[in-house]
Design a protein that fits this description.
The structure is a homodimer.
Chain A (H helix, E strand, L loop, with lengths): L3 H5 L16 E6 L9 E6 L2 E5 L15 E3 L12 E5 L5 H4 L2 H8 L5 E4 H12 L9 E4 L4 E4 L2 E7 L8 E7 L2 E5 L17 H9 L4 E5 L12 H14 L4 E4 L5 H13 L3 E5 L1 H12 L10 E2 L12 E5 L9 H6 L13 E4 L8 H12 L4 E4 L13 H11 L3 E5 L3 H13 L14 E5 L4 E7 L5 E4 L2 E2 L4 H13 L1 E8 L6 E10 L8 H18 L7 H20 L4 E8 L1
Parallel strand pairs in A: 3-5, 5-6, 6-7, 11-12, 12-19, 13-16, 13-17, 14-15, 14-16, 17-18, 24-26
Antiparallel strand pairs in A: 1-2, 1-20, 2-3, 4-22, 8-9, 9-10, 10-11, 20-21, 22-23, 24-25
Helix pairs in contact in A: 4-8, 6-7, 14-15
Amino acid sequence: MGSSPTVRTFIFLGSMKKTKQQKNLRIIPLGGLGEVGRNMTLFEYQKKILIIDMGLRFPEETMPGIDYIIPNISYLAGKEKNILGVVFTHGHYDHIGAVPYFIEKLGKNLPMFAGRLTKGIILKRQKDFPGKPELNIKDVKDGDRIRLGPFEIEFVKLNHSISDNFGLLIKTPLGNIFHTSDFKFDPSPIYDLPTNFKRLRKIGKRGILLLMSDSTGAEEEGHSLSEKEIMENLEELFKKTKGRIIASTFASLINRMQQIITLSEKYKRKVAVDGYSMKTNVEITRNLGYLKIKRDTLIKPKQTADYPDSKITILCTGAQGEGEAVLMRIANKEHRFLRLKKGDTVIFSSSVVPGNERTVQMLKDNILRQKTNVFHYKMMDIHAGGHAQKEELKKMIEIMRPKFFMPIEGQYSMLVAHAELAKKAQIPQKNIIIAENGNIIDVTRNKISLSKKEVPSNYVMVDGLGVGDVGEVVLRDRKVLAEDGMFVIVAIVDRKTGRVRGSPDIISRGFVYLRESKELLAETRKKVITIINKATGGGVVNWAYLKNEIKEKIGSFLYSKTQRRPIVLPVIIEV
Amino acid sequence: MGSSPTVRTFIFLGSMKKTKQQKNLRIIPLGGLGEVGRNMTLFEYQKKILIIDMGLRFPEETMPGIDYIIPNISYLAGKEKNILGVVFTHGHYDHIGAVPYFIEKLGKNLPMFAGRLTKGIILKRQKDFPGKPELNIKDVKDGDRIRLGPFEIEFVKLNHSISDNFGLLIKTPLGNIFHTSDFKFDPSPIYDLPTNFKRLRKIGKRGILLLMSDSTGAEEEGHSLSEKEIMENLEELFKKTKGRIIASTFASLINRMQQIITLSEKYKRKVAVDGYSMKTNVEITRNLGYLKIKRDTLIKPKQTADYPDSKITILCTGAQGEGEAVLMRIANKEHRFLRLKKGDTVIFSSSVVPGNERTVQMLKDNILRQKTNVFHYKMMDIHAGGHAQKEELKKMIEIMRPKFFMPIEGQYSMLVAHAELAKKAQIPQKNIIIAENGNIIDVTRNKISLSKKEVPSNYVMVDGLGVGDVGEVVLRDRKVLAEDGMFVIVAIVDRKTGRVRGSPDIISRGFVYLRESKELLAETRKKVITIINKATGGGVVNWAYLKNEIKEKIGSFLYSKTQRRPIVLPVIIEV
C-alpha cells in the first residue's frame, strides 16, 4: 500500500494563488501537557487561522482547588482579526467547554459552526456565565460544507457516544486533511446510523494528505463494543430485575441515557432523572429531538415512592464516585428523597476514569453494604467507550491511506501505540508526527515536520472566577499547606526596650491538634522570644533577617518535634 | 458436598476443660474501613488473645500529609497480660509494618513468631526506629507447630509473591480454623516449591470449622498467572533487547527481583540495584539466603557507565510512579548518575495500584518521550499478582470444605464476590460471614454470627512522629487549605482611640498570587478597617464577636470576588 497514488489527486484551486507569504500550513495543537489536540487545534495558512474546538480539561490531582484547565491561547493575542472561525467536532466539554472563557478575547462575533446538538449544549453552557456575550453559532449537518478563507470544511458524521459528532474533511491549498474527531466504528448503534463506510472510502479516494486520528483507544486490542451488545446486556438486567433500577452513567453519554429510557419504557418503568448535568442534558437533547421519551415516562425523584419498586428506574450521575453527585449522595444516605434498600439494583454504566478507581471502589463498597446488587462494566458488557480500538484505527488508516499521519487525542503512550499501527500500515516513519501541545507542525505537500519554535502551551488554570491567576507559586503553597498545614507566629516588640511584649500569639491550622499540643506551643513561644530578644538586643535590627531566622529556627524545631514541615509565617509588630 | 462430616472430627482436648467463662471464640479484625483483617486480627478465647499480623496501610487521597494508617488497638488496652503472642503470616508491610508503633504498648517481651525472612524484615524495620526495644521473635518454618494458650498454630507454606508465606492452621477448643494468609496456587513457581495440594487436602480432611481466605483476587476470573509464564515472557525481552534494561517493580516482590537477577546473569548483564527499599530488601534476602546472586553480578549505579549497554540491568523501584522513587528520578532527569537514552528498555513488572493510574501514565509518557521502549503488564504477561483468583479460591474452599466461611483481605466488593463463590460451593448463606474491621465475630461449634457490639476501629493516622494525633479537625483544615489556601489579617487597634492603627497586614498563601492582587488586598484592608472601627466605636468591645464578624464578612467578600473560600484568620492586637 503506497501513498503516492493518493498524492497525485491533489490538484486544487487554492494552491494556484501563489504568494510570497507562508507557503506551508501550520497546525498547532493547544492544551498543556497531555492529550494532544483534544481540546483545541489551530490551522494557520498565510496568516489566516481556523480553530477546531475550544474545550477544557479537568485538573490533575496535583492541582488542588482548581476547577478546570483551559488551553493557553496567548499565541492568538494580536491575531484576532485573522481568525476565520471555530468549527466544533461534537458537544463534549473537552471540546466545547472553554468557549465562555475565550469568546470575549477572540471577538464576540467570531463565526462558529457546530452540529445542532453541539450548538444547543454550547448555548446552554453560555447561559451559566451571566454577562457573557451572545454567540454567533451556525448549525451544520452531516455533509454540509463551509468555506472559511483558504479552508473548505466538510462535516462527516462518525459514531461516538453523543450524536452530531463530525469528522472534518478540511480541504486546504496543500491537500485534504481528515480530522476524525473522537470516533468509533459501530456497525449496529442504537438510535443512530451505522458508520457509512462507503462514504469514508470515497473520501479516502479523493486523496488525503494528512490523517489526524483519535488515539484514545490505541492501546486497546480489537474492536470497541457495539451499542447493540450493550443494549442486549442491559436488557438482560431489566428483564430479570424485580426491584428498583438505579442506573448511573456520565451525563455526556446521551446514547446510554436513551438506552436506559427506552428499556424502562419497554419494561413499564417510570424514569426519575436526577443530577444537575443529567437533567440539563435531558432537557437540551429532548427539546432538540435527540432524546426520545414518551410523554408520561419521566417522574420526579420524589414521586418514585408512589410506584411499586418494579416500576421505577432512577437515572443519575455519579458513576465516577464524584463527591457531590447523586449516586454518592444516595449511597451515603444524604439524598433528600432516595435511600438504597435491599432488592435495589445499581448499574454503573460507564468505565472508571483513571484516577477515580479508589473513589469508585469505595462507592461500590458502600452500596454493597446496603445489601443492594451492583453491576459494573467489569462484570458484564454494560458499557462501551466512545473510542475506536486498534482494529478500527487500522481500518481508518487503511480507508484514508494518508500520506502523512498524526495521532491526536490521547496520552503520549497512546500516540506512540497509534503511530505503531500507522507504521504497520506502511506509512513511512518520516511521514508520522507525534506532536505535543504547543508544537508547530509544518505541513507542505511533501513533508511534515515539527518546527523548532513552539507556542506557549502551559496550563491555564481556572479557579472560581480567576482564570490563569493560580500559578506554580500558589499551587506549591497549597500542596505544602495540604501536607503539613501552617503556623503563624505573631509577636509584639516594644520599640523602646526592643523586647517582646507578653507572649507571642500562635495560629495554626492543619499541623497538629492545638488543644493537645500545649507543651509544644509553650516551648515554641519561649524559643521565639529568645530569638527576637537576641536579635533586638543591640543596635539596628534587621527585620527581614529576623523573620527569616524565626522561620528557619522554628521550622526546624517543629520538624524535630513532629517530623512535619508546616509553612511558618512570622509577624512581628513594633509598638 | 455437605459440611457435617467435617464437623464430627472435632474431638479435641482443649474443649474438655469446660469453664463458666466465654464459651465461644471471638474473632476481631482490626484496621479501619476497608480490607477486613488484612493488617491485624485478634482471636480471643476465654480472655486469652492471639494476634495475627500487625500491619499498616497507606493513606487515602483524602488524607494529605499522612504517612501510614495503623490499626486502632484500643480494644487491647488493659488486656496486655492476656495477649499470648503474635503470629505473622509473611513479611509484607501490610502485615508487619505496625510493629514499631505497637510493641511498647503491648509489652516488650510479647512473643512473636514468623518465618525466617519475615523475621529478618521485621528486625530490619525495627532498626529504622531508634530507641525502640528489641523484639522477642522466634523463627518458624513450614510444618512447625506452636502452642499459645488454648491455640495450637501450625504453619502451612503457601505461594505468594514473597518467600516464607504461611497459611495458619489454628486449632482451637471449638475446632480448626484455616487462615490462608495472602496466597495463590502456583503449579510452577520460580525458586520456590509448588503448592503442596496433598498436604492441603490432608488438612481439609482433618475437618475445618472455619476458613478465612484471601479475597484480593475474588473479582478476577480464572487462575492467576504462574511465575513460570512470567519468567518466560521476561526472558523473551532479555533475549531480544540490545540496550540497557531498566526493570522496575515493587521492592516487596522478592520473587520478581530474583527472576530479573537470574535472567541478567544468564544474559551476561551486570545488575545495579537502586532505591532504598529495594537495596534493603536485597541485603536482607541475600544475607538470609533467600535471594541467589552470583558473586560478581551486582555493581553500583555509578558503574553502569563502565559496561556496554547490552551488559547492564538496572533493577529499581518506582513502577507506581512514586515521586521520590528511582524510576521517576531517572525519567525526570533528576537521578544522580542515570539518564534515559534511545535504545533503553524500561520494564514495568508490576500492576498499577488503584489510585496511581494517572501518575503511572505520566511516568510512562515521560519515558516514551525520551525514545525508550516501554513494556508493561497490559502489553504482555510480565507481572503476576500474588493473589488467588476465582478458580483458585473455589479450589481452596473445595479442599477445606469448611463449615463456616469468612472472606478476608479485600475491599467489600471482593468479600461479596468471594462469598458468592462460597455459596456456589454449597456453603449455606447463614454459615458465611462478611465482616468489617471492628466487628466481633462470635464462633461456636454450630454457629457463626456478628455480635451487636463492636470494638473501636477508626483509622489511626501516623504523620511524622505523631501517631493518632492527626484527627478529623486537622485533616479537614488541610483539605480546605489545599483547596483555597489561607488568609491571615493582622490589625492593630489603639486602645485609647479604639481605631485601627495604620493599615492591617495581610498574609496569604495558596489563595491568590499576591503580587497580582494588589487591588483586592487594598479593598480588603479598607473593609477590615471599617468593620473594626465600627465595632470599637462605642462602649465595650466583644473581641470574639468582632473576629467572627471579620471572618464572615471578609470571607464572603473574598468569595464574591474570587469564588474561593480560603481559611480567614483575623488577629487583632490592642496596643
